[in-house]
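Subject: sequence -> structure tokens, single chain

Hey, anyone have a minute? Need the predicted structure for the following. Not urgent.
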Amino acid sequence: MSNLSLTEALSKVRQVFNVNRVLQDFSRDITVPYYTQSEYGYSKFHSQRDCVHLALNEDGIFSEEGYYGQPRTVSTQIQAIGARQVLELGSGKGFNSSFLAQEHPEVQFQGVDLTPLHVSIANKKAASLSNLTFQVGDFNQLPFPNQSFDLIFGVDCLCHAKEAKIALAEIRRVLKPGGRLVVFDGYREPGFDQRSEEIQVTTQLVEVSMAVVNGFDPLEDWLDAAETVGLNLVEKRDLSFAIMPNLINLQRLSQRYFRLIWRAKVIKWFLPKYLVGNAIAGLLMPYAFAVDSGPLGYYLLIFERID
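Reply:
Had a minute. Here:
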């Protein structure tokens, strides 16, 4: 992690950004403009392979191979239950489903995403794959009949749900009996309200700068919502340690932006609001997801539909 203390990092953010103005985006629907404006930053600084999620590097060393960690886990689940119809929620630019469609040519894959730009990019990538299609869609109101899919997965996307219970009920509706839901995402750890003001503000800045504008759900609340709608928890695994190499790499990139405050202020005026706002998340995420002590955790959750 950076040799900057959290206090020093927050000071840099405050010198460049009006924190109160940034936090005004809480509870605003900015998912589509965020990902549209951030496309250049994601493709240049995050992944040139059209990946928009965090890498899993369990060996502690950042490598872009870590971006395949999530889809490889999904692949294992596809094999475990013999899935033939698979849906990806928040499919982005098609990285995960394109990989899986090539690994499993006998399985039909469908992706839905809110951002038209992402869907357009994904469909171009999938043009040669007969078992994969993408469409614009909202996982709060999925455009599919009841019990359509054997397996549904979402990587770093369900945090954008307006209300977890609504999204989870809709997922269960289109999931076949015995079907599975695989989720990779961030959640607030217990005791958030008892944290210091500094760490709460840090967390909120990370959340809103990543368009998680309702804040990450408390993990236990999210698990309770899943149980309430009829999804049984099969596996829970804390992977916060595995994303840390990626977070540290992103922090190093963000530090370049904040190195000269006057220059950072100038750049801010010329770049799209949500694109430049990623520098805030990049600088602060390692503090928010700090292993064993951070207010946020990154988890793999696997559920099975209960009937």
